[in-house]
Amino acid sequence: MGAQKAASRIVRPLRGIKAVGKPRPLGEIAYTTLKDAIVKGDLQPGQRLVESSLSGQMKISRIPVREAIKKLEQDGLVERLDKGGFVVKNPSIEEIEETFGIRAVLESYASALATERMSDGVGKKLDETLESYREALARNDIAKMMLLNNQLDEIIFTAAGSKRLYALINNFRDFISRYRKLLLTCLDYAAISLSEHEKIVEAMKEGDPVKVEKLVREHLLRGKNILIKDMKSDGNI
After folding, report:
1. 166 and 78 within one domain
2. Domain count, the chain
């Protein structure tokens, strides 16, 4: 009887309640917040970063904001002005060339691997994502198209089945997202990107890794050229 009463007093874990974990330093939170804003395009190239305004908006002191900005400078996402202060950095032609060149090598290889390991389930996910992309394009929903571009990449890179390759590609995700936002605002590029992704997926379903690798390289290098041309015409580089 006593054992039964003791058992009834045992506190069972409540569903949906998880460990809180260790609190993150404010400098790290400020860094992540500002980095996400730059990558998503909420903070535009050339936009000034004012410590007092940022700290007030984030409701923290200026010290963690200052730490975050210095770290972003090391990442190459912001730059110091000669007269003082910081602005969101415009990517240079060299940075764009390098980033897209590395992407062309890694992503074309990952796509070829995914083609060799293609399954009906992966094909279905790609088709569904492309259909959602068409709907987003019809609405000119750039934020949604960015999300779906990332989703297409995630499906393909996961299907490649290489953790090491996935990690290498993942190191460039922030830069990729930043350029993708700039690209999708270029005239007609969103429609071009959709058409090229449709051809890539079709070649994957045909089981032709050589064709897929070629199409992915062409897609990325075309995007690079469009981006550089557009930024030059706007006087940003």
Report:
1. no
2. 2
